Amino acid sequence: MTTSEIPAIEIPRGLQPADGRFGCGPSKVRPESVAELAAVSTTYLGTSHRQPTVKRVVGSLRTGLTALFGLPDGWEILLGNGGATYFWDAATFGLITTRSQHLSFGEFSSKFAAAAKAAPHLEAPLVIASDPGTHPRAVADASVDVYALTHNETSTGVAMQLSRPAADGLVLVDATSGAGGLVWDPAQVDVYYFSPQKCFAGDGGLWVAACSPAAIARIEEISAAGRWAPASLDLKIALDNSLQNQTYNTPALATIFLLDLQVQWMLEHGGLAWAAGRSAQSAATLYGWAESRSFASPYVVNPAERSNVVGTIDLEGVDAGVVSKVLRANGIVDTEAYRKLGRNQLRIGMFPAIAPDDVAALTTCVDYVVDALGGQAA
C-alpha cells in the first residue's frame, strides 16, 4: 500500500495519546531523559570511558540495578557491547560447560538454542518447543548444566513465570523485553540478561547481565580451564572490566547514560514493583478492551501467559496492516505485528515509560479507525 492509498482518516487530536510511540524495541525514550543527555553533551559525551566521568555513571548503573532487582550479596552486574544477541554467543563460550536445555516458543527464544547447537565445542542442546502464543516448561535433566529460559517472548507477547527446574545447573534468562517491567525472584535465576532498548527506554548496542555467585564461579572455572573465546565475547574479560565500572571496549556513552537515568527514575518512584505496576495497568486496559470488542481478541489465549509489556491483539474483519498505517499517518507509530509471525495483528509496547493513559487513548484511536473503515468498534 502506497502513501496515496492509505485511507485519509484523521483522528481527532483530543482522542490521541500524548505520546504516540508504542514500539516494542527500540522503545519510547522519555523526553526528560533526552533533555538530561543534552545537558551533559560537553561534559560527559565525548570523554574517555576509562576515566571517572563515565565510570561514575557505570557505577551508578550497576548499583541502581542491584537495588532495582533486589539482588542478594555476591551478585554482580556485568556489561558488554553488542546487545543480547552477542550475549547468546558469549554464553556458549563462557557459561555452558557441556550441554544446555532451551525453551523455544518464538523467534527470539529459538535463537539462543540455534547458537548453542552451532557451537562445535558443546554437545547438541535439548530444545523443548511449543507453538507461538504459548510457552513450554523446563524439565530437570542431569545431562544439562544450563537451563535457558525467556522471561518475555517479544515476537509473540508471551511471558512466563521464572522457576528453577532443578537444584543443579545454571538458569539463564533472556529478559530483553521483560527486565524492568516484570517482577522476578533472584532465587530462581543465575543470569538475568537484557538490552536497554525495551523497558529501560534507551538505545540498543549494550548487554547487561545480573549474575549470581554460581554464575560468576562458572565463568571463572571455564576461563581457568583454558577454553578459547574471542576477547569481545569473553565473559571473564567482561567480568573483570565490569568490576572496574567499565567495558572491555568503547561503549556508546549515550546508551549507558539513558539506561542509568531510567533505572534512577524507576527507583525514585518505587522501584520494580512500581514500574511493573505501570505495565500491568496498561496490559489490563489493552486486553480488557480487546475482549470487549467483536473485531479484536488477545492472541495469547491463556491469560496467565499474556505479557504485561508486549501486547499482541488479533483483529478480525478489518486489516490490521491498514489500521497501523492509518495510526502511523496520525503520528501513532510502531503498532505493526511482528513480521515473521504473519498474523492479522497489532503488537503494542507497554513498557514502563509508556503512560497507561496513552495505552487507553490508543484503544480509543483504534476504535475510531475501525469505525471509519466500516468495521464495528463496539
Describe what this molecule looks like in 3D.
It is built from 10 helices and 12 strands. It is an alpha/beta fold. The protein folds into 2 domains: 17-29 and 270-372, Aspartate Aminotransferase, domain 1; 31-269, Aspartate Aminotransferase, domain 2 (3-Layer(aba) Sandwich). Helix 2 runs parallel beside helix 7 (253-269) and helix 8 (272-291) packs parallel to helix 10 (356-372). It is globular and about 65 Å long. The mean pLDDT is 96.
| Helix count from the secondary structure assignment | 10
- Globally, the shape reads globular
Task: Give the uncertain stretches in residue-range form.
Answer: none
Q: What is the total number of structural domains?
A: 2
What are the secondary-structure elements, in order, as H or E? HHEHEHEEEEEEEHHHHEEHEH
Largest sheet strand order: 1-9-8-7-4-2-3
* Strand fraction: 5-15%
Radius of gyration: 21 Å
What would you say the CATH architecture of the largest domain is? 3-Layer(aba) Sandwich
Which fold name corresponds to the CATH topology of the largest domain?
Aspartate Aminotransferase, domain 2
* CATH homologous superfamily label of the largest domain: Type I PLP-dependent aspartate aminotransferase-like (Major domain)
Q: Could you tell me the number of beta strands?
A: 12
| Biggest sheet overview | 7 strands, mixed
Query: Terminal Cα separation, in Å?
Result: 27 Å
Q: What structural class do helix, strand and pairing data support?
A: alpha/beta
| Name of the top-level CATH class of the largest domain | Alpha Beta
Helix-residue proportion: 25-40%
Quaternary structure? single chain
Mean of the pLDDT scores?
A: 96
